[in-house]
Amino acid sequence: MTKTCRSAAGPADPSPWRMNLACQLAIDLRDDAVLHEVSDREVASARSQGALSTLSQALRYQAISRIVKRSLAEATELLTEARTLDEAARAMHVVGVDLLLVAFRGDVHHYRELRSTLGVDGRPNETVCEQFARAVLRNGLGNYEAALQAALLSQSRHQAGSYLVWTLYAELVEAAVRAGRPEEAAHAADVLKQLAKAHPVPWAMAQWLQARALLDRSEDCDVLYREAIATAPGLASTSTTPASGSRTANGWKIRAVPRRRAPNCRPRTRCALRHATYR
């Protein structure tokens, strides 16, 4: 499937449409390496051709690849450049990726500012991003019922054909488990399982392992967290700590284990946490 992603990008000088398709395919397959490679190629191609009309969209895909890798500062720079290009061209500024960035940062104030630009109903594609971003943000703040409702709305859009989300099902598992809704959590975990089996790259495998850890009620759930960390130590986690309400700058950070789990799981999870990498 990795070859499929790369071939979708086309020749050395592909069309922007093919590059966008390849980026989206990489996101759907959770292939962060290909997403990074293809988005970099798309930006380089747009710059070399002076194609400012397509550069802003290319920068957004590149920003997504950096959010995945937890390079949030670089993602901010890329989105700032995209916004500058939109303003210069007097084009409508698309804020979907901006919403995701501030959600992963736990920046409630900036999130509300961006959300207000969508209006009452919002634009269809950006509405999906906003729902997904709201799930990310509310999970990070420990408001799991609100996170679950947002994730379920985003899921319905995704099932109807939307392609603008990527860690939706990981967020849904997180919210559903902590909100005491095991049915929704199990369904979302099964989606992650099927994806990981179909394309066992680190990003997909880590999301599935983390979902299993969240659903595991045994004393050994930390083993699954360790496996997730070891599988993808530099990728975006869906985990936060309730005390901070913010995502890690780089790598994984494990949430405190709910009280309903086995009593020995919390200290073991703290032990697993020490094996995570930070910047």
Task: Note the main attributes of this structure.
single chain, 279 residues, mainly alpha, disordered C terminus
Regions with pLDDT < 50 over 5+ consecutive residues?
236-279
Question: How would you sum up the global shape?
Answer: globular
Radius of gyration: 18 Å
- Helix coverage percent: 55-70%
Biggest sheet layout? none
Mean pLDDT: 79
Strand content: under 5%
What is the SS-derived class? mainly alpha
Number of strands: 0
Number of contiguous helices = 14
Span between termini: 32 Å
Order of helices and strands: HHHHHHHHHHHHHH
Overview of the structural elements:
This protein starts with a helix and ends in a 6-residue tail after the last helix. The chain has helices spanning 2-8, 16-28, 32-49, 52-68, 72-88, 96-105, 108-116, 124-141, 144-159, 168-178, 182-198, 202-215, 221-231, 265-273. Helix 6 (96-105) packs antiparallel against helix 7, helix 8 (124-141) crosses helix 10 and helix 11 packs antiparallel against helix 12. The chain is mainly alpha-helical and 279 residues long. It is globular. The chain contains 14 helices and no strands. It has a domain at 1-93.
